Amino acid sequence: MPTVSLGSARLPYETKGSGPGLLLVHGTGPGADITWGGIAERFAGRRTVITPDLSGSDHAVDGGEELTVELLAGQVEAVIHDAGAEPVDLVGFSLGAPVAAAVAATRPELVRRLVLVAGWSGPDDEYMRNLMTVWRRVAGDADAFGRFATLTGFSRAFLNALGAEEVEKLVPNLRPTPERLRQIDLNLRIDIRRLLPGIQAETLVIGCSQDHTIPVENARALHAGIPGSDYAEIDSGHVVLFERPAEFADLVRAFLDRPGHRKS
């Protein structure tokens, strides 16, 4: 597996498929495999899919410094260059959405089209601030930490459809490691609102109507802040990649494959 070295960080990434580059940016959690493992193959038939593990993931190695959007955006840029895939279509999920937006705003030559999924742009949502604060404060109880992430990450209908045995398998996916806590701390500090008007790439923002982690109003505000962006909403909890993978992949493919036009 290729690895990019940048400062104190060693960042592995995987590529699969062939065609134009499509880079997928993971959110809060262990990393690319958990986030994109069930989705990447849906795009690999016509694209080179690149899935990096950034600082804060379980597979990246760094000095444990404070995470910032600028730090993670710089790592995405380094992976794009190392993979020789520029410009790429760039998709960011949850924490990966503001990171991807920052790359598009500051390095427009690297991004062909941009998809921001279940993301947010600023720190003003009191629901989110309290949710992230509670999540961080239950870190002393690994089971409670994982259950809180499961409860807020998925819709009630999805959890009930899975049943108790399968839901129990979800709980250990998020453990209160130092890396998770670094990511949650960043979630509380993110503010990219000043960058949004500078995004030149054609952009699709996707909100999740039953999102109990990042309420859908945040995705709508993200869309409103990016001139000329498109918006779509999926009836799903936060982790739409698990709940509605086919619907999500079809929506993204349709956007990426449509004939090009300049943003108005």
Give an account of the 3D structure.
The chain is an alpha/beta fold and 264 residues long. The protein has one domain: Alpha/Beta hydrolase fold, catalytic domain (Rossmann fold), CATH 3.40.50. It is 41% helix and 18% strand. It is built from eleven helices and eight strands. The protein has helices spanning 32-36, 69-83, 96-106, 126-137, 142-153, 156-162, 164-170, 178-189, 216-225, 240-243, 245-257, and strands spanning 3-6, 9-16, 21-25, 48-52, 88-93, 111-117, 202-208, 230-234. Strands 1-2-4-3-5-6-7-8 form an eight-stranded mixed sheet, with helices on both faces. Strand 7, helix 9 (216-225) and strand 8 form a beta-alpha-beta unit. Helix 2 crosses helix 3 (96-106) and helix 4 (126-137) packs antiparallel against helix 8. The chain is globular. It starts with a strand and ends in a 7-residue tail after the last helix. The mean pLDDT is 96.
